[in-house]
């Protein structure tokens, strides 16, 4: 990767250099979320309106936000997990177009991410891998086991907070959802969209006294392999570890 690769990408993705998009050529839009097997184990999550979230002053939450890389041994409750998933990717409604309107903005409401979690210590959740089914606000169990946090920590240059945290969040980008409208420029919007998701997760975590650390340092090939994606039609670009804050 050289500087000119980056500049080439920026120039290539200028609006005036865009090829006609699949949308403008009449190609139907890709699904709003990946299909899932209805026979899989699905865990419904409590709606946020049913969860008692302590009210916090918004400015104080923003001011206290910071990155944590150590967590206590405490579990995260299912209510807390539901709140965190909702705040970062929850679907408020599906419009008639159809697009999803979520807790975060997204260029053209393309919302090109699938959210996955590695759960090690979430009350009532078997340790393992899960996918957040955002439209139904539920979890699909993908695999059970206690080894996954250590494995994904290795894929992220052996970052200990990923191995040790009760839960980590992972965002897999589906570029077709963005490029359907924006062509190559869609890749710019995906990267911007990812920042909104993680920022909401930071603020939601702070609002319930959890610590969090964004994760952008990883071996792309190893991370994509961990989640079983091809790195082209879906690839992982961002994640976050999360847990209860230790005494400072
Ligand atoms: C895009 C991005 C990627 C990051 N990746 C990592 C990471 O892989 N590991 C890590 O320990 N911190 C990571 N961080 C956290 C930053 O190091 C942290 O935000 C920065 O030091 C500023 O500290 P603050 O968040 O407490 O203000 C990342 C932050 C961002 C925004």
Describe the structure.
- The protein is α+β, with helices and mostly antiparallel strands.
- It has a single domain (55-244), classed as NADH Oxidase (3-Layer(aba) Sandwich), CATH 3.40.109.10.
- Helices cover 33% and strands 21% of the residues.
- The protein contains eight helices and nine strands.
- It has helices at 3-12, 58-64, 78-89, 148-155, 160-164, 175-182, 185-207, 220-227; strands at 42-44, 91-94, 100-102, 113-119, 128-133, 138-144, 167-173, 210-215, 235-244.
- The strands form two sheets. Strands 1-6-5-4-7-9-8 form a seven-stranded antiparallel β-sheet, sandwiched between helices. A two-stranded antiparallel ribbon has the order 2-3.
- A hairpin with a 4-residue loop joins strand 5 and strand 6 (138-144).
- Helix 6 packs across helix 7.
- The longest helix has 23 residues, at 185-207.
- The protein is globular.
- The termini are far apart.
- The protein binds flavin mononucleotide.
- Flavin mononucleotide binds at residues 66-67, 69, 159, 213-217.
From the structure above, extract its key features.
single chain, 248 residues, alpha+beta, NADH Oxidase, 7-stranded antiparallel sheet, two-stranded antiparallel sheet, 33% helix, 21% strand, globular, binds flavin mononucleotide
Topology:
Blueprint: H1 3-12, E1 42-44, H2 58-64, H3 78-89, E2 91-94, E3 100-102, E4 113-119, E5 128-133, E6 138-144, H4 148-155, H5 160-164, E7 167-173, H6 175-182, H7 185-207, E8 210-215, H8 220-227, E9 235-244
Antiparallel strand pairs: 1-6, 2-3, 4-5, 4-7, 5-6, 7-9, 8-9
Helix pairs in contact: 3-7, 6-7
The chain binds flavin mononucleotide.
Residues 66-67, 69, 159, 213-217 line the site of flavin mononucleotide.
């Amino acid at each position: 990767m050289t500087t000119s690769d980056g500049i080439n990408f920026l120039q290539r993705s200028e609006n005036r250099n865009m090829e006609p998009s699949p949308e403008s050529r009449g190609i139907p839009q890709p699904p709003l979320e990946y299909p899932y097997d209805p026979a899989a184990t699905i865990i419904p999550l409590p709606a946020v309106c049913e969860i008692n979230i302590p009210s916090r002053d918004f400015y104080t939450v923003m001011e206290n936000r910071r990155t944590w890389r150590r967590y206590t041994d405490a579990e995260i409750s299912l209510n807390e997990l539901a709140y965190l998933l909702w705040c970062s990717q929850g679907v408020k409604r599906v419009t008639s177009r159809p697009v999803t309107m979520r807790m975060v903005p997204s260029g053209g409401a393309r919302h090109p991410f699938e959210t996955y979690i590695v759960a090690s210590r979430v009350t009532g959740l078997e340790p393992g891998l899960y996918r957040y089914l955002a439209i139904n606000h539920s979890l699909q169990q993908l695999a059970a086991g206690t080894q996954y946090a250590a494995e994904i920590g290795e894929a992220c240059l052996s970052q200990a907070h990923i191995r040790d945290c009760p839960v980590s969040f992972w965002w897999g980008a589906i570029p077709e959802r963005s490029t359907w409208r924006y062509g190559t420029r869609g890749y710019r919007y995906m990267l911007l969209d990812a920042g909104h998701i993680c920022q909401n997760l930071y603020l939601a975590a702070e609002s319930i006294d959890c610590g969090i650390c964004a994760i952008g340092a990883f071996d792309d090939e190893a991370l994509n392999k961990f989640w079983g994606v091809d790195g082209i039609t879906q690839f992982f670009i961002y994640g976050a570890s999360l847990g209860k804050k230790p005494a400072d």
